[in-house]
Amino acid sequence: MSVTTEAGTFESLNPATGAVVGTHPIHDEKTVFETVERAQAAARWWAGLGWKERKNRLLRFKGALARNLNRISQVIHEETGKPIGDAVFEAVGAINLLDWAAKNAQKTLGPRSVFPGALSINQKAILEYHPLGVVGVIGPWNYPIYTPMGSLAFSLAAGNAVVFKPSEHTPGVGVLLAELFAEVVPERPVFQVVTGFGATGGALTRAGVNKIAFTGSGPTAKKVMAACAETLTPIVAECGGKDAFIIAADADLEEAAKSALWGAMSNAGQTCVGVERIYVVESVYEEFLGKLSARAEQLKAGYETDGTSFGPITMPGQLDIIERHITDALAAGGRAVVGGAESVRRPFVDPVVLVDVPDTASAICEETFGPTVTVTKVKSLDEAVAKANATEYGLASTVFTSSSKTALDVARRLRSGMTSINAAIAFALIPALPFGGVGESGFGRIHGADGLREFARPKAITRQRFKSALDTTTFTRTQKEIDQIIKLMQFLHGRKK
Ligand code: NAD
């Protein structure tokens, strides 16, 4: 939560208590432009350090994060209101990403020879990936260290400088990250932070960065993309989701209920890859619903109280959306088997499980971003896949079944960037796997080798090792050489099977 204070500054507030967590500058366009200019010079220096030294520095940054885990988690806890254990878990995920990016950058992006092909056998072909320069990272508030780290660590490991604009609701985490980075890279401003609201993010898109890594809502992504179109600045867009969780008749229902509940309600449902819709094959629907509801009844929203399962809704405006989705679903004929409209106790929302919700209701079609979930009975896995895919979003999905063959078949048919089998959101802790969506969930990838390549440009280099026997690419080529080429092509590609 955040409010504007005296001119030029704003306060980040604890969403549970309203206490001021920190005061930060609202950086204007001039400051953002100057910051990016400094970053351009720092980027050249950082790129010049080379793979080994950058890896050393990033691993030292990782060490600093690990040593400051308690301090970082406390800021996350206060700024988002999430339980301290969840804040620790999130920071651990971020450290995991940083470690992987640091250790795999050279292997993924460093120079390598590739086979030049029969026509160019006289050439040596070299592929390498160069840094882009400065990456502007615009982050959300729901996972204020884990989510941006997918862009920050991978950009830095690829040899870029970064300018990070954290969410106005969680600026303190971003500022702390930059402070810790400056301890291991004191020479140049390779990692800088600008704070403020949307206008500060907007300035960053116009400031001459070489790429924007945006994480946030689809509507904001479209504004960022439009601004970046003016200068042909590329972007990677990590946006929202409406993730489905599918349960087959042969699934372990106890495990499915535990996993679906965690996927739907942890972090108060404020998870881009959170479970929002559950589809259950009819033969096990009642049994699953009973198990899920019994577990959901045990959860409680709160702040720093014993037995609190999750914290408040971090962004006050989201409470209206959550409430509307519940009341719309009930008005359209849905039923709440756990909680209901009364579960919205601002700034908290207790668990809500909705059934019989029509496919056209907002609780099925729009991202809710709260601790609510719909459970829908389906006749078959085919119907479950069709319903799961009937959305503009395509971020992640889960399938529960004891058949590996069925699981893989369903996973491959689900239109989403990531699918977990028998454990929701499992991919998020595997830094080698790419993370990102399709459709309204965005495009481009963070994490893994694809995430490193996202922040680099491929460079192709050829070196002629000897003169070709066939002089095909000069004006001195002869008809005889063309005839030889025809023969070679027919030998290589024209033989009948
Ligand atoms: P948001 O779109 O409101 O804000 C995201 C960031 O963009 C903030 O830092 C904000 O200040 C900035 N911003 C706002 N207007 C801007 C503009 N015109 N130009 C540049 N920057 C601007 O999103 P949010 O509410 O902070 O985050 C929640 C959303 O993020 C949800 O939809 C969630 O699903 C999504 N999300 C996606 C992922 C993912 O990896 N796919 C991860 C976390 C969150």
TrEMBL record:
Kindly identify the residues recorded as the active site.
E238
Q: Which residues form the Aldehyde dehydrogenase domain?
A: 6-461
Task: Extract the InterPro entries matched here.
Answer: Ald_DH/histidinol_DH, Ald_DH_C, Ald_DH_CS_GLU, Ald_DH_N, Aldehyde_DH_dom, Aldehyde_DH_NAD(P)
Q: Does the keyword Oxidoreductase apply?
A: yes
Q: Name one Pfam family in it.
A: Aldedh
Key word Cell cycle present in the record?
A: no
Superkingdom of the source? Bacteria
Q: Which UniProt keywords apply?
A: Oxidoreductase
Would you identify the family this protein belongs to, as annotated?
Belongs to the aldehyde dehydrogenase family.
Q: What is the protein named?
A: Aldehyde dehydrogenase
Task: Tell me the organism.
Answer: Actinocorallia longicatena
Lineage of the species this protein comes from: Bacteria, Bacillati, Actinomycetota, Actinomycetes, Streptosporangiales
